[in-house]
Amino acid sequence: MSRAAKKTENLADRIYLQLKKDIFDFRLMPGDRFSENEIAERMGASRTPVREALFRLQRECYVDVLHRSGWQVKPFDFKYFEELYDVRTILECAAVRKLCEEHSDLSNLEELVALWCVPAEQHLDDGRVVSGMDEHFHEQLVAAAGNDEMARIHHDLTERLRIIRRLDFTKPTRVAATYHEHRAVLEAILHRRAEQAQRLLRTHIEESRNAVRKITVHMLHEANTRGERQAGENKEMTSAG
Questions:
Q1: CA–CA gap between residue 41 and residue 35 (Å, rounded)
Q2: Number of C-beta neighbours around residue 31 at 10 A
């Protein structure tokens, strides 16, 4: 790869990460429309790396390309995320049931036990770090069941849900609860108590889903309020000028 091509690739990565952060933090709101030129000007870049970044975000279902009218942040669809959570719950419960079978190999869970079955004083409190650990926990549970296709589908669900799932770890109480709930699930699996493990897992996912929904509604409201306030201030400045 030439030096120029490498530079474009690195710039596309930077733009991708910044746009994704803007979407996650609701600086780019669901439904917002924009052009490649607008992003290029804001990022101080040409349209080529901007386009690469946007197509990557499109593949991950964060934005849509609009015929002859630029791009749009995907409108927020609670029903869509609810359906993803339903599928995720089914997959994870199936994996747990398989893990609890008499002859299943539980050695792949040793890493998770070492991370989550620890004294409270060893719990991490950085929400961003715990969010990543939580994703790893659930993906490892499914992977440990030994069904590669199930693991692939679950990984895809994890990518799609990340935009809202991470919000669960902005509240200290939810970070603490995650340690407790993960430990309980692991202990039930290690004792091969399938029904108990599935019940605990379903409750854990449901608690997370409810918390995320409340936080998302609040953040969307706050972001809309800020946008309306800023629009009002801009209008006043224009009138004054």
A1: 10
A2: 10
Say whether pLDDT at 167 is over 70.
yes
The values of phi and psi at residue 206, to 5°, are -65, -40
Pairing relationship of beta strands 63-66 and 70-73 according to DSSP bridges: antiparallel
Instruction: Count each helix (H run) and each strand (E run) in the chain, helices first.
Output: 9, 3
pLDDT digits (tens, 9 = 90+) for 4-48: 566 667 899 999 999 998 988 778 888 899 999 999 999 999 999
Structure tokens that stand for 62 in this block: 């964060």
Length of the chain: 241
DSSP state of 25: T
Q: CA angle, 149 as apex, 146 and 153 as ends, to 5°?
A: 115
| C-alpha span between 141 and 144 (Å, rounded) | 5
pLDDT, tens digit (0-9, with 9 covering 90-100), for 48-85: 999 999 999 999 888 999 977 799 998 878 888 899 99
Instruction: Please give the domain boundaries of the chain with CATH numbers for all domains.
Output: 3-75 (1.10.10.10), 78-219 (1.20.120.530)
Question: What's the gap between Cα 93 and its chain centre?
Answer: 20
- Please provide the average confidence, as pLDDT, over all residues in the chain: 89
Picking from 191, 204, 201, the residue whose alpha carbon sits closest to that of residue 95 is: 201
Question: What region, left, alpha or beta, does residue 21 occupy, with left being phi > 0 and alpha being psi -120 to 50 degrees?
Answer: alpha
